[in-house]
Amino acid sequence: MMTLAEELHHIFLQKKLTLSIAESCTGGALSHCFTLLPGASKYYLGSVITYSNESKEILLDIPHTWIAENGAVSEKIACAMAQSIQRKLKSDYALATTGIAGPTGGSPEKPVGTVWIAIATPENVKGMLLKLKGGREEIIHAACEEVLHALRDAIR
Fold this sequence. Notes:
Blueprint: H1 4-15, E1 19-23, H2 29-35, E2 44-49, H3 53-60, H4 64-70, H5 75-89, E3 93-99, E4 114-120, E5 125-131, H6 136-155
Parallel strand pairs: 1-2, 1-3
Antiparallel strand pairs: 3-4, 4-5
Helix pairs in contact: 1-6
């Protein structure tokens, strides 16, 4: 049985599409899903892990005012992250994750497990709010799986 990452790997190779990723809360786990697969260098252009607000501003050109007004864990920032890495690496598709994996850092408005993901396609960008449960590793894994499902839906 093929994993979802393997399925996407074959789709990207077959359709000659390219992919880039901007990660925060997943800390490289999403990129790792692709770099595990031989031949990924044919479509996977690269990623950035912008774990701090400052790195989002410096590496992805996210305006400080956007983070101050919306919070780093927001649809606006997730979408901006995806669009920025897509533009910088000139990829067909781009993914972004920003959230609170825990066990600390949550608030009543944004509890642990709050994750925004975004997918930039050649036509548009779409953000999606996830409310995940579990420990830190489970939240990171679940966020990656949700992004992969959303990417597959976007490519179809």
